[in-house]
Every structure is written in C-alpha cells, then in structure tokens.
User: What shape does this take?
Amino acid sequence: MFNIVLFGPPGAGKGTQSQRLIEKYDLVHLSTGDVFRDNIKNQTELGKLAKSYMDAGRLVPDEVTIDMLRSEVTKYSAPKGFIFDGFPRTNAQAKALDVFLASLNTEIKLMLALEVTEDELKMRLLNRAEVSGRPDDANISVIENRIAVYNRETAPVKAYYEDKNKYIAIDGIGSIDEITHRLFASIDQVI
Ligand code: AMP
Assistant: This one.
C-alpha cells in the first residue's frame, strides 16, 4: 500500500488536492472532518459528540478520533493506499496511526505539507463558507481558533515525520493546478 498524509492548516487546500491525488494514484481519500460531518448529518452518537468540538473549532478528543479512523480504514478490502486528510492532528494520533498501520503490514510513505500564510487561510475559509455551509467556516473567531489550535497542537506533528525523513513541504500558494503539479512531482519521486 502507498499511504500519504496530506497535511496543512485549515483552508490550505487538502480536500481539493486530495481529489486530484486519488484520481491519479487510485487511492482512498480518508478525511476525518468529512467522516465527522457525515455523522453529524446522520445524527449518530459520534456526530453528537463531535459537533460541540467542531462548532468551537476545537479538536475532537484523540481516543474518539483514533477509534473512528481505525474503523474507517478497515472498511476497505485491499486498497492501493490511503490519503489521510486532516489526520493525524496530534502527536498521539501520529503514533497511533503508525502502530495501527504496522499491524496491517504497511506504513506512511510520506507527509506532504501544504504551506499557506495565515491571511490567505482566513480569506479562503471565509470565501469557502459561502459554498460549504460549514458553520466553522462562517465565523471569524472560530476560524482564528482553528488556526491557533493548528499552530499549537497540529504543527508539531511535522517534526514527527521530519525525524523519519518523510516530510516534504509544498508551496500551497498558486493556482489549484500548479499546486497539484507540485504534489505529483513529489509523489512521483518516491512511488
Ligand atoms: P476539517 O474538515 O479537517 O477541517 O475538520 C473539521 C473539524 O473536525 C476540526 O476542526 C475538528 O474539530 C474535527 N477534526 C477533524 N479531524 C480531526 C482530528 N484528526 N482530530 C481531532 N479533531 C478532528
């Protein structure tokens, strides 16, 4: 299996670029945010639990998120690989992912990290709110909290992959196509 972590702050373009990558490399896109939103829509217990955290721009607790991720991954039989989008968001999640993938005799091959300035992120998220219908995109103080949570809890995950020589920074500013080509070029070097 060929597994990638697509990393970056909220609004960096992870979801958009994931669509391009799954088409080209025939991978499964696994976005923890999307799974939580589906659960909210279907009013499951998991959705009810996740909603209060998401509406405030806070992280859903690790234990809940890791359990959910494991059960999502095991839904697929013999995938070519996964693009993890929005996961891992803490070092505890990164460690749990390694242990879990090792139990499946696979691993993360690389982390591709989209880099975008904070001003650009805020602008993109406020614009996205008009089409996404996401309550956490519509409110500037929630957006600022998500970026602060990213800087505090999620950005340190880069070092986890850097230590394993799996981290690649990608300039996330430019047209969607330009950024896609940067991602393709990095993947094609290791695939
Ligand atoms: P996203 O769609 O990736 O922007 O995620 C939206 C929200 O879902 C986040 O602000 C968190 O509240 C929650 N969430 C998504 N992925 C995770 C994760 N790996 N760990 C904790 N919370 C998450």
Remarks:
- The longest strand covers residues 108-115.
- The pocket of adenosine monophosphate is lined by residues 10, 32-33, 36, 53-54, 57-60, 65, 86-87, 89, 93, 136, 146 (CB under 6 Å).
- The domain at 3-185 is CATH 3.40.50.300 (Rossmann fold).
